[in-house]
Amino acid sequence: MPRIILFNKPYQVLSQFTDEQGRATLADYLAAPGFKAAGRLDYDSEGLLLLTDDGVLQQQIANPRHRRWKTYWVQVEGRVSDEGLHRLSAGVQLKDGVSLPARARRIDPPDLWPREPPVRARKTVVDSWLELSICEGRNRQVRRMTAAVGYPTLRLVRMRIGDWSLSELQPGEFRYVEVPLQVGAPKQASGRGKPVKRRSS
After folding, report:
1. Does domain 69-161 have CATH number 3.30.70.1560?
2. CATH 3.30.70.580 intervals, the chain
3. What is the rounded CA–CA span in Å between residue 27 and residue 196?
4. Both ends of the chain: CA-CA distance in Å?
5. What pLDDT digit, counting tens, does each position of 36-76 carry?
6. Whole-model pTM?
7. Which one of the listed residues 42, 54, 111, 163 is annotated catalytic?
8. Angle 183-40-57 (CA atoms, 0-180°, nearest 5)?
9. Does 114 have pLDDT greater than 60?
10. 87: which DSSP letter?
11. Active-site residue 96, yes or no?
């Protein structure tokens, strides 16, 4: 049965196991021979990354044509207006075309782990949080969408991909799940892990 690793990718970690420039990678947090990332999560973004040991499943999760919803908690610069929410929900004009309709709503500042390094606080600039769900996979799409409507992203945390959620996992933690042959909800949790090692600062 195919397996998936649910991994909480920390800030400034690559969604791959090697890097010629010496940046932090998945190998600094888990040993998973045969597993590959199903999709990407930017170096400067945090949260849920899925890895699998099944090539077909990897393509089913990562391929944008499957329209799998992905949910993010987004800290943005400024207080988001009703008009801004409407524009995000309706679709935003980007350089590579109009985004598909999204699901956007304001949320209270969430109780998240501290980011290292933290987002720079500015006394003269307010910020706010959104929950934004999209069903596309364009490069840096969420950041480009919020910027296009006038609210640059300060922090971006992916909380859910389809039926899989970050749940209680802390940065660098992971757990295995088994899934049916047809991609669907997780069938059976089969363990939870801590990072295999940590880089010295």
Report:
1. yes
2. 1-65+164-201
3. 8
4. 39
5. 999 889 999 999 999 999 888 888 888 777 778 999 999 99
6. 0.88
7. 42
8. 20
9. yes
10. H
11. no
